Amino acid sequence: GGERTLFYKFLRLPRDILARDMFRAAKQYCKGQVLDVGGWDFFLTLKEKGAQYDHWITLDNSTEKLLTMDDPKFECVLGDGCNMQFADNTFDTVLNIQVLEHVFEPIAMVKEIGRVLKPGGHAIFLIPQTGYMHFAPYHYYNFTRFWIEEAMKRGGMEIVELQPIGGLWSSMAMHSIFFFIETMRLHGYSVPECKRTWKYYVLFPLMVIAALCMIPVGFLLSLGD
How far apart are CA 53 and CA 74, in angstroms? Predict the structure, then answer.
């Protein structure tokens, strides 16, 4: 909850670079009545990037994430993305960006998105397959492309694009970056129940060297992902 810090925005930069296809898709498909499920302030990012909309609703489940905007075409609504209050076939575009991994019943959210989406409309998802731990303890899953294909089918949606935004090497590079974040036990990236043994501290210097090497090597090799 609360305001996005500069540190958080810095952590988001690698994702935004890797996920440039997501922004391209949002600019291409976003139009009309738009619903962003669990988007918090993502509206501001897409607005800066030129996404089109007639009216935009951001649905979130926390009062701390309800934005107040001086924009008559924007509103923020408190609600449950797995049991939405909107009627069937309401929205031209639905966004769901890095949300499913934080939902204990993600298939319920996918089905709800399919329900409120108009025929011929587009839903845009960003779904992690090898994501690092974040927003702990509310990080429940990573997904395979096979889950995505089956979930969209069950949600009554046809896949127009299924675009990987990385692979083995970019995942290793990202995990190496977040090794340092998890080492500092920052809120949302670790929990007190995760204990460290003496072996961790003995091997820690080697871990640091390996992570520092893997970041540039991983991103270089990710050109072939």
Answer: 9
Q: Give exposure, 187-196, as e/b (b: 16+ Cβ within 10 Å).
A: eebbeeeeee
Best CA proximity match to 143, nearest among 187, 186, 110, 121:
110
* Span 65-78, pLDDT tens digits: 788 888 899 999 99
Name the pTM for this structure.
0.88
Identity of the amino acid at 208: V
| Radius of gyration over every alpha carbon of the chain, rounded to an integer in angstroms | 19
Per-chain mean pLDDT for the chain? 91
pLDDT digits 0-9 by tens, 152-181: 999 999 999 999 888 999 999 999 999 998
